[in-house]
Task: inverse folding
């Protein structure tokens, strides 16, 4: 959506929309139908309960018909911009699209985590993602990466292809979060962990830490942990602890379907965001927390340092005692918490305007 709206604002009528239909047909979309579709998506995404309802087939058929691609307008050259991994597993499909359009190819690459850390991906994730990155290396004329860390991971693939592919680093922007007031709690300080529940996010470190606190401290001295995110994959042990560990009851809350407004309120009232990930390509939760003045305690990863600069508290994702110490300091508004609050005003909030400006520069270099 940021790309669609941002490039539309930058290029106006020069921007065209295209798609691969579920039937496999590729072509240009009616401009009016594409803009109506974007409006509809934004309305559905902005539901207060954060959970867009599945629409019936009969209700979506008129829109699907309006979005039927057409070959009309193809072949005029220019730059084909893709901000998702859609169809990158099929290099022949992408090759045919580029030939039909007679266009240069600019692609956004989010990360190479399924390749570098296959143990955190679905069983077929590494092989599928390798095909996507091979397509980028073979066919892209330039790539946008969401962090220099992702760029360093992508570089060997570009180098091995023997092609010249420009890599542009553009940090992802943050949306303005709602000014929702923090939710009333039980008086105890609390922390937020934000993101899909999957092994790479290292929820187990936090859950084991909170179980230890529950077993060693009076209940009133234990801060709360609020986990916001849908359940992902390969996470049986995490789910078992959330559902079956008695010690976590009353201290750990899981919120699966959370609206943007509620998430903003919870984040505003938190002592800190906790992000003990083993691997990240960017780190949007860190940016979201810092953008509203909430401190962050996160893993010492290059991508997270790019986002957070010198503001967050950085820790090894395996350092349980270190996380415990930092969490209690922030719960009590101790010296480390106060030092981070003093650093926060000088943090630079990445914006979508800055990101799209870099994308536009990459496009102009290809035109």
Result:
């Amino acid at each position: 959506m940021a790309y669609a709206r941002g490039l539309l604002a930058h290029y106006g009528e020069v921007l065209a929309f295209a798609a691969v239909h579920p039937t496999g047909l590729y072509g240009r979309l009616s401009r009016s139908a594409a803009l109506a579709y974007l409006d509809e998506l934004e309305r559905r995404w902005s539901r207060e309960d954060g959970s867009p309802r599945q629409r019936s087939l009969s209700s979506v058929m008129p829109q699907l018909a309006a979005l039927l691609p057409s070959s009309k307008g193809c072949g005029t050259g220019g730059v084909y911009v893709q901000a998702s991994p859609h169809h990158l597993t099929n290099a022949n499909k992408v090759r045919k699209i580029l030939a039909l359009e007679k266009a240069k190819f600019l692609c956004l690459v989010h990360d190479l985590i399924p390749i570098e850390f296959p143990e955190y991906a679905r069983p077929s994730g590494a092989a599928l993602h390798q095909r996507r990155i091979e397509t980028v290396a073979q066919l892209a004329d330039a790539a946008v990466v969401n962090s220099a860390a992702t760029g360093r991971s992508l570089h060997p693939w570009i180098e091995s292809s023997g092609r010249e592919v420009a890599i542009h680093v553009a940090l992802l922007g943050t949306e303005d979060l709602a000014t929702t007031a923090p939710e009333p709690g039980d008086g105890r300080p609390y922390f937020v962990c934000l993101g899909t529940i999957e092994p790479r996010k290292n929820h187990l470190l936090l859950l084991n830490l909170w179980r230890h606190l529950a077993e060693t401290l009076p209940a009133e001295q234990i801060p709360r942990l609020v986990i916001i995110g849908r359940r992902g994959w390969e996470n049986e042990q995490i789910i078992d602890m959330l559902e079956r560990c008695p010690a976590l009851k009353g201290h750990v809350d899981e919120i699966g379907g959370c609206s943007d407004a509620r998430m903003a309120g919870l984040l505003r009232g938190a002592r800190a965001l906790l992000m003990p990930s083993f691997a990240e390509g960017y780190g949007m939760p860190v940016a979201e927390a810092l953008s509203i003045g909430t401190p962050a305690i996160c893993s010492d990863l290059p991508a997270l340092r790019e986002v957070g600069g010198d503001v967050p508290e950085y820790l090894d994702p395996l350092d349980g005692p270190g996380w415990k110490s930092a969490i209690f300091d922030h719960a009590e508004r101790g010296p480390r918490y106060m030092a981070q609050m003093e650093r926060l005003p000088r943090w630079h909030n990445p914006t979508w305007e800055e990101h799209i400006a870099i994308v536009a520069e990459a496009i102009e270099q290809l035109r």
Summary: The mean pLDDT is 93. DSSP finds 15 helices and twelve strands in the chain. Residues 61 and 343 are 52 Å apart (CA to CA).
